[in-house]
TrEMBL record:
<dbReference type="InterPro" id="IPR023468">
    <property type="entry name" value="Riboflavin_kinase"/>
</dbReference>
<keyword id="KW-0274">FAD</keyword>
<dbReference type="InterPro" id="IPR023465">
    <property type="entry name" value="Riboflavin_kinase_dom_sf"/>
</dbReference>
<dbReference type="InterPro" id="IPR015865">
    <property type="entry name" value="Riboflavin_kinase_bac/euk"/>
</dbReference>
<dbReference type="GO" id="GO:0009231">
    <property type="term" value="P:riboflavin biosynthetic process"/>
</dbReference>
<dbReference type="GO" id="GO:0006747">
    <property type="term" value="P:FAD biosynthetic process"/>
</dbReference>
<dbReference type="GO" id="GO:0003919">
    <property type="term" value="F:FMN adenylyltransferase activity"/>
</dbReference>
<keyword id="KW-0548">Nucleotidyltransferase</keyword>
<comment type="similarity">
    <text>Belongs to the ribF family.</text>
</comment>
<dbReference type="GO" id="GO:0008531">
    <property type="term" value="F:riboflavin kinase activity"/>
</dbReference>
<keyword id="KW-0511">Multifunctional enzyme</keyword>
<keyword id="KW-0808">Transferase</keyword>
<comment type="pathway">
    <text>Cofactor biosynthesis; FMN biosynthesis; FMN from riboflavin (ATP route): step 1/1.</text>
</comment>
<keyword id="KW-0547">Nucleotide-binding</keyword>
<keyword id="KW-0067">ATP-binding</keyword>
<keyword id="KW-0288">FMN</keyword>
<dbReference type="GO" id="GO:0009398">
    <property type="term" value="P:FMN biosynthetic process"/>
</dbReference>
Length: 318
């Protein structure tokens, strides 16, 4: 299967139906299991192992369990990233009652063997599964012979002497530390969405902005101004400065928007899909006493953003 032809299923039963109906021809698979929020550098280690087995002829499956709550990456962001790596199949599995109450042994026998046809299982050393979290990486090793698969247990990837985890990324994000977030993720933090109409005030003050309404579950860094690069729908990458917040200077609303002023750019982007990547926090969101003061500050932000992006060497080539 080529890049971007990844098949996505929602839940085990949808996957099983696709196998039964012949939508997917499954012989043997290499499966990685986990929550995979963020698909950070630790997760990427597991994915590389699956992709290596895929090269050897197994069907690569990422089995991602969603237990709800805020997300570092939305399903869509995660799916498009994992597809870009070349994974064959993504199963997005809600942490349903069925899964919650299934004994670890039954999960191996029914889900991993009967439904997924796992020949290789790839998990992190602290992976737990089954009712009461009774199943462990060690259990997967112990059952290899009985069920006829090979278990590959990966150690935790570290950064600056500490383990990389979704929890560590959440706290870096919460602190607005985009540089650390990027180091842990292995790529800059993305926010994706469709460009919607705002108040149309931006263009009248010389700073038009593309406005995105992020999904309610998407974790955002704190309100403020960031140096960013935005990938447009046609693949072009444009440097800019992005404000996250409620625009207190001109609005008393509570709607949180992600709005980007693209440097040296003047095209209409309404209705298109964008991905904005966050490199560095410049300042917090402030209330200004006039539009002139806000505009003067935005001009300074644009200069700082450009300076930061060029120093980091991430300015797209023109
Ligand atoms: C770089 C940048 C910095 C901004 N900083 C602030 C700010 O500190 N306080 C604020 O109230 N709004 C801020 N904004 C949001 C502006 O109020 C908003 O972009 C402008 O009013 C246009 O809104 P519109 O897109 O709805 O037309 C900022 C916007 C950008 C692009
Ligand atoms: N340099 C630019 N940066 C961002 N958007 C731009 C730029 N140039 C043109 N645009 C277009 O202008 C629109 C933003 O204008 P604006 O007056 O801020 O309206 P809105 O309030 O709907 O965001 C964007 O959706 C985009 O289509």
């Amino acid at each position: 299967m080529s890049e971007n032809s990844m098949l996505i299923y929602h839940g085990i039963h949808e996957f099983q139906s696709a196998c039964l109906s012949g939508d997917i021809l499954l012989h043997s698979s290499a499966v990685t299991l986990g929550k995979f929020d963020g698909v950070h550098r630790g997760h990427q280690k597991l994915l590389s192992e699956v992709l290596r087995r895929q090269q050897e002829g197994l069907t690569g499956i990422m089995f991602a369990i969603d237990s709800g709550g805020q997300q570092i990456l939305t399903e869509q962001e995660r799916a498009s990233y994992v597809a870009s790596l070349g994974m064959d199949v993504l199963i997005e599995c809600p942490f349903s009652k069925e899964l919650m109450t299934m004994q670890a042994e039954a999960f191996i026998g029914r889900v991993l063997k009967e439904i997924l046809h796992a020949a290789v299982l790839v998990v992190g050393s602290d992976f737990r599964f089954g009712y009461g979290r009774a199943g462990s990486a060690q259990m997967l090793l112990d059952r290899q012979k009985q069920y006829g698969y090979r278990a590959v247990i990966e150690t935790k990837e570290c950064y600056q002497g500490r383990e990389i985890s979704s929890t560590r990324i959440r706290s870096a994000l919460k602190a607005g530390d985009m540089d650390l977030t990027e180091a842990l993720l292995g790529r800059p933090y993305p926010v994706s969405g469709r460009v919607v109409h705002g108040r149309h005030l931006g263009s009248t003050i010389g700073f038009p902005t593309v406005n995105i309404l992020p999904s309610a579950r998407k974790l955002l860094p704190p309100d403020g101004v960031y140096a960013t690069v935005t990938e447009l729908q046609d693949g072009r990458c444009v440097p800019g400065v992005t404000n996250i917040g409620t625009n207190p200077t001109i609005s008393d609303g509570n709607d949180r928007t992600v709005e980007t002023y693209l440097l040296d750019f003047s095209e209409d982007l309404y209705g298109t899909d964008l991905q904005t990547r966050f490199y560095h926090r410049i300042r917090g969101e402030e209330v200004f006493s006039s539009l002139e003061e806000l505009t003067a500050q935005m001009k300074e932000d644009a200069g700082k953003g450009l300076h930061f992006l060029s120093r980091r060497g991430v300015l797209p080539k023109t």
